[in-house]
Write a structure and sequence with these properties.
The chain is of the alpha/beta class. It has 8 helices and 7 strands. Bound molecules: nicotinamide-adenine-dinucleotide (NAD).
């Protein structure tokens, strides 16, 4: 379905980003991977994705907190694949603390990586999408882009911001062949959430299994995790012809989290 197209997936060395990169590659899309990790492990992921799906897969170590590196990520993708058709703004971090204790440096980092990076990347890819009169921008927001939780001020602020940014880009690009949507997942069991489960288990002196069940029960009517592959499938749907008039939407995939 996506043969001949090229996608940038930020933060695709792990978790949801890797799930999306895999789903897009399975549709024949060339992939520019990005994110941190052990060089050998990243090269293993890159080579496996390319071999299993017979598509071009490149990797950029761009730090999404640094706008010049974001612009270079886009330039490198254009050099490698001749253009950028799909941009998935996915890279993200978390920090959990009450506002009175929240470290300023963590606030700045979360706003930069989870929110401002999407602006810099979108600004850099849009001219390429306009040229081809086709583009798909998918912002990985969160249930926390629609509702709040205590102790996640920076994350909730950034995710609400990205939902707003999604709507503006959708309006500005509505007649350019480009769509821009946000995906708002509930709990997905990735390293980002595993860390929160471990902290909770240690703080309360309970088993990780219990901490994981409690985490789900607190927020989601549905007591299981969404998988990165399910989010990848939603991203693929948004890239397809059936979704060509879906734009500016914040699509929940959250086990009923924001239905309450
Ligand atoms: P993860 O920790 O598994 O993956 C995060 C990815 O971002 C990694 O590849 C990491 O290397 C990369 N990254 C972090 N900082 C970066 C930087 N400065 N520059 C470039 N890459 C960077 O986390 P995840 O759960 O897969 O999260 C992915 C996205 O999904 C995030 O935006 C997160 O907020 C969002 N999300 C996650 C959940 C969940 O339950 N896991 C729910 C809703 C939304």
């Amino acid at each position: 379905m996506l043969k001949g197209k090229a996608a940038i997936v930020t933060g695709s060395t792990s978790g949801i980003g890797l799930g999306i990169a895999t789903a897009l590659a399975a549709q024949g899309c060339a992939i520019m991977m990005n994110g941190f990790g052990e060089p050998a492990a990243i090269e293993g992921l890159r080579a496996r994705l390319a071999q299993e799906h017979g598509v071009g897969v490149a990797y950029s170590p761009a730090d999404m907190a640094k706008p010049p590196q974001i612009r270079e990520l886009v330039a490198a993708t254009v050099r490698e694949f001749g253009g950028v058709d799909i941009l998935v703004n996915n890279a993200g971090i978390q920090h959990v603390a009450r506002v009175v204790d929240f470290p300023e440096e963590r606030w700045d980092a979360i706003i930069a990586i989870n929110m401002s990076a999407a602006f810099h990347a979108t600004k850099a890819v849009l001219p390429h999408m306009f040229r081809r009169k086709w583009g798909r921008i998918i912002n990985i927001a969160s249930a926390h882009g629609l509702v709040a939780s205590a102790e996640k001020a920076a994350y909730v602020t950034a995710k609400h911001g990205i939902v707003g940014f999604t709507k503006v880009v959708a309006i500005e690009t509505a007649n350019e062949g480009v769509t821009c949507n946000a995906i708002c997942p509930g709990w997905v069991l990735t390293p980002l959430v595993q860390k929160q489960i471990e902290v909770r288990a240690a703080a309360q002196g309970i088993a990780e299994r219990q901490a994981s069940d409690d985490l789900l029960r607190e927020k989601q009517p549905m007591l299981n995790f969404t998988t990165p592959a399910q989010i990848g499938a939603l991203a693929v749907f948004l890239c397809g012809d059936s979704a060509s008039t879906i734009t500016g939407a914040a699509l929940s995939i959250d086990g009923g989290w924001v239905a309450q």
